[in-house]
Each structure stands twice: as structure tokens, then as C-alpha cells.
Amino acid sequence: MKKLNKNFWVGIIAALAFYGVVQVLLTTGIFTDVTRSMLLLIGVNIMLAVSLNLITGITGQFSIGHAGFMSVGAYTSAILTLDYNVPFVPAIIAGGLLAAVFGVLIGMPTLRLNGDYLAIATLGFGEIIRIIMLNTEYVGGASGLSGIPAKTTWTMLFLFTLITVVVINNFIGSTHGRACIAIRENEIAAEAMGINTTRYKIIAFTIGALFAGMAGGLSAHTFYVITPGSFNFLKSFEIIVMVVLGGLGSTAGSIVGAVFVTLLYTYLREFPEWRMIIYSIVLILMMIFRPSGLLGKTKFSLGKFGKKEAKANDAISENSAP
Amino acid sequence: MKKIGAIILSTVLTAILASGCGNNNTEKSGNSASGGNTGGGTIKIGADLELTGGQASFGDSASKGAKLAVQQINDAGGILGKKLELVVSDNASKSEEATQVAQKLITTDKVVTIIGASTSTNTLGIVPVATEKEIPLVSVGATNPKVTVDERTSKVNDWVFRAAFIDPFQGQVMANFALDSLKAKTAVIYTDTSSDYSKGLQKFFEETFKSKGGEVLSQESYQQKDSDFKAVLTRIKAANPDVIYLPGYYEEVGKILKQAREMGITAPFLGGDGWDSPQLAEIAGADALNDTYMSNHYSPEDTAAEVTSFVDAYKAANGGAVPDGMAALGYDALKLVADAITRAGEADPAKIKDALAATKDLQLATGKITLNETHDPVKAAVVLKFVAGKQTFETKVNP
Fold first, then answer.
1. Looking at domain B167-296, which of 3.30.40.10, 3.40.50.2300, 3.40.47.40, 1.10.1740.10 is its CATH number?
2. Does B23 touch chain A (CB under 8 A)?
3. What is the pTM of this model?
4. I want to staple B247 with a disulfide (CB 3.0 to 4.6 A). Which of A29, A90, B201, B225 is the partner?
């Protein structure tokens, strides 16, 4: 128990130190606006990847509807700040909460499905949200909402990202998290052990949706414009790529994956004709030579830099794999 | 666990494959047109365009047009004794990337003006950046009124201008053309309700058509990706209008025209610049396109001197390719900026902005341009008629 606490605080302090350094660099102007918006994008992507990892990596439910939750949060918070002058933080939280409500509503009927069937159902959900937005005049129809105030600051984004990572990481380490992992490893066995699988799946889905919604709101208040088209299923795939690339089932992996994909994508902008080719080749090579992702199943612990635990975990998963 | 991994991997790869398909039109286009940046000797202009993604063909044409303009200006000795340098960056047809690209162009490349993007949505991602950093923005292809006029405050965006005419104007042009040239008295309007562009054209066509004594018999609608239109077309056939206004994009328009002609609807169809694609003739077939008309920014067959000289220069620079509307607009956007810098007397963003706002009677490839008080160009539109599946120049309509 003591060790866990120590790890936790080391992580928090390291994160705060990182925040401080970036904040100084931003205020002194060493980091330009370009770097700043890249950092914001990385933060948003970390929130998305970590929250999807809870659903797909930890609970083992393959969801392609993450962009749908993101768009619910983005639209809700944007409408609140634009039309109702709601302050920034409550608007973001409201966006997240509404996305969570959708998470429950979608989760109830669909989470009884599994594997490929669930994937199709969540894909359908994401598309339904998009089509509704597309045909609702109030939210701008096809051209979406524009002129959203850019209220997301580095500090705000950092706080939200930190909260996301801490909450989800602690959830994974809790009884509930272990129940979710049990569902991933073998649903029938988990049920036989008395775990209410549907309930835990819905919990994971809802928490994932909550943070995805917040990420959507933060992203809307960074990039001024949201359109239904920016939340299509390709966006969901982008998030899945981050999670798989980083290592399915590892929070630290999701963070690394999100940072890696965002940086890769940003720096390839200079070579438009090669962008998608290099991006795809990197993904293919990654999956051939490191199918478990950049970090495999490494747990999130800065205290020991995740070495020992990673090995132990790999051993477990290798043994359990058929 | 293994199975999930396999499913995810295969789905992701399929998705990448699918998204990669949109990029095969991308031309080689290094991020600097004139290469050497000698610092004080050049004036840098940024281009925030769609070189990959869904609208890659628009951005590609626009960047070729803009590069041609830069080359012509530099060959003629540059502006104010300095050469122009065009910094082209890819926004991947996404508005959030357009925002980041604009930030990069302003902060890293230190451009004095930005041109782009080629769609309204992507331009809206640049507008707040340009306003905040006080750098003039000339949109190449944005046609939505809210790009230059804030829809919530109804105030004109000081730093934002555009080279394309706005949606309402196209609707008016076609309504006037139907009434005056085709002598139509009745019309049916068939709108794509999933696109703001289509709805904008529909609204202004209807207003103008009614106010000048025409009668709109009925309003019909479809959605993007629809493929069977026979039910609605049966109703339209029964209404027997003089003209049918169909302001949509080429993909559905092509199918509608094909099915309408098969069902024996002979009335002329009218549309806007969304029809402008070689694929329209492939989808509809040349016969179905007989007796159809579209409004557009310019026609390569226009015999006016400024158009022929542009078309010839573009063909020479791009291996004989005929410039489409977006290429002409890219060329015009850059010429607008160049003219403003010349009149401003120095490459200072604030002065360029004031000079842009005062643009008057500037002769460009798409006509003589005057920017009005909302920073929208007042210029002629062309009406094209399809003959044997090819666009032919019908008439030019002045505002």
C-alpha cells in the first residue's frame, strides 16, 4: 500500500514539474503558438486514448464510437459557452456529463453484444450522432459551429489531462478495474466468479465516454470550429491507432501512443505527398515488429519506471495466452 | 485477447487504406515555391490549402494557380523590388489542422498574408487566428457569407477577404438566367438538405425567382449519398415545370440527371459550381447533360483576353492541364494580395489589410473584381451550358 502511494506521488510530482517547465517556456516565449497548439492537441489526444484504453484495452470491449462521445461533449460545451455564456470549466464538465449519459444509454442495449457485434453497434452509434448533428439547424448543420472562443489554456488542459489519467489509472487499480480486466481475459469465467459483467462494462463505457466528452469540449475551445465531419469514424480509428500503437491495456502506453501519433502527424505536415504513406508504413512496421505496442502492457508507475512490473505482466499475459 | 487484437489491427489497416484513397491526386508540391529564402529580399505569403484528404483536388488546383501567379510576378521583377515567396502548407482538409497550419505560417514562417483555404469550413478555422495575429487572410474558395461577416455579431471580420463570390450571388444569377434567357415562368427546386451550400443557393434562387414574377411549383429535397431519386422525380414530372433548379454536388446531381432523363423529364436543369467536376459527365452520361446549365466562377472557354492569357500560361506551366475554377481562384487570390502590397507601398500586414479593403476594378482571371464593404468580391459569374457532355461558355452575368 505504501509503495502504491509513493509511486502515485512521484508520478504527480513529475507531471507537475513537466507542467512548470512548459509553463515557463510558454510565458518566456521560447515555445511559440505552434508548439502550444501542438501541446494542446497532444493533451486532448491523451485524454481520448486513455479513456478509450479503459474501454478497449482494459475491459476488452472493441468500440469504434469514441468520436461520437467526443462530438457530444464538443457540441454541448460549445453551445453552452456560445449561446448561454456559461463559464468555461462548467461547460466542459457539462459536455462530459452529457457524453456519459449517452454512454449509459448506448451501453445498456449494446454491451450485451461482444466482439465484432459490439464494434458494429458502436460504429452505428457514432454515425447516428454525426447525422443528427448534420441535420440539426440549431447546431449549424453541415457547416457546424464556428467562432467558438479559444478558452482552453495550457493550465486548464494540463489539469484535465492529469485528472483523466489519475482517475482512470486509479480505477484500473481498484476492485472495479480488476473486475474489468477479468471480463477482458475471460468473460464466462468472470461471470462464474460472480462479476456482474454487464454492469462493469457499462461503468467502463460511461467513464470512457465522460472523459472523451471533456476532451471534445477542450478540443472545440482550442480549434474554434467544429463540424459533424470532424467526428466521423476515421476520427475514432485515429484514437484506436493511438491506443493499439502504445500498447493495448496500458495507460502509460496510451499516453505514449497519443504523443507519438500526434507528433508524427504534425511533423509529417511538411511532406504532404508522403504523409499518409509514411504514417501507414510506420503503423504496419510497428504491428509486425512490436505487436504488443510501444510499451506492451507496462503499468503506469514512474517510481520504478515500469521495468519490473512490465516484465511480470508480460509473463502473465504470455502464460495466459492460448 | 489475441482475437481482439487481430480484429482491431485489420479494421485499422482497412480504414487507413480507405483514407489513403483520397490522397492519390496529391501533386508534388514542396513547401516553398521559389526556394531560396534570402531574408530581407523576399515577401513571404502563406498558403493554407487542402493538399491531402477529401478536398485535395481543390487545394491542389488552387496551389498551382497561386504558384503561377507568383512565378509571373517574380518574372516581371517582383513587388517593390522584392521577390514573392509562397509557403504552401497542407491542412489535410480538416479545419483544426487549418488552424494549426495558419499558426505555423504566421509564427514560424513569418508570412505577411495568408491565402486559403479552398472551402468555407476550413477557412473558418483560420479566421480567428488571422484576426488574433492581425494578418490579412484572403480565402480562395470560401463561398459561405459567414466567413467574412460574423454571424453572431453581424460585424465584418476586418482581416478576412475572399476571391470567390458568395452563395447568394450564384442563386441570383441562375434565377435571372432562368427568367431572362430561358423565359421560364415556373420552377421546381430540388435541394441537397445535408449541405449548407445547397440550401444557401436554394434560398436565394427562390427569393429572386419569386420577386421577379416566377412561380416555384414545389420544393423537393435529397441527402448526400442517396442513390434512388425516382419517387421525387415522378412528382417533379407531374408538376411539369419550365426549369428545375438543382444546387448540389456532382455525385448526386449526376445520378439525378441520369434518372430524370430516363424517366422522360425534358425540362432544363440548372445548378451551381458544385457541378464543376469531370466526373459529372461520367456519372450522368453525355446525353443526360443536354439542356443543362450551371453557374461558375469562370470558364476556360471564355474569349476575354485576361482569361485566355491565364489559361495559356497555366497550360504551359502544368503540362497542358486546363485550369478549373479553383485554379483560377487561387491565381486571383494571390493577385489580389500582390496588388494590395503594391498599393500599400510596403509589406506591412495592417497596410496590406487596408489596401485589400480598398480593392477596386482589379482585372483578374475570373473577371474585374471590386471588394465591397463586407469584403466579398463583386464580379461577373459565367453560365455554362453542357454540349455533348462538355461545358461550353453560354453567357457572362454581371452583378
1. 3.40.50.2300
2. yes
3. 0.79
4. B201
